Fold this protein.
Amino acid sequence: MKVKVSRKASFNAAHRLFRKDWTQEKNHEVFGKCSYPNYHGHNYDLIVSVEGEIDEETGFVMDLKVLKDLIREHVEEALDHKNLNTDVPEFKNLNPTAENIAVVIWNKLRPHIKQTNKLEVVLYETPRNFVTYSG
Ligand code: NI
């Protein structure tokens, strides 16, 4: 019997979407306001889910306090109040789109989640725009 447990979190970060090898016009055409040179912020909301068997002894799939601490240590401390383009090594050569941020978060958390459990990351860049990555 598999059950999915989830923890919500949030962080604020600045970014700019652009490709160095494109002109400013082309960047604006593809990325719109998100390509403005001086960066801008988003309030990101995050839902991290772990799916697996219920442990017979504890009744937990995973202790959500442990998941909360993992998110704080590996996601919030790495991304919160950062400029993703300039302050976070993973985005040195990777456009910090919601898609890529979700994959980076998943990769940061995966080593700390029991291998037999499934990990899913849902990242909201705005209340209406969100992406899902589950490996
Ligand atoms: Ni943006």
In short: Residues 25 and 63 are 49 Å apart (CA to CA). Helices lie at 24-31, 64-79, 84-87, 98-109. The chain has a mean pLDDT of 97. The longest helix spans residues 64-79.
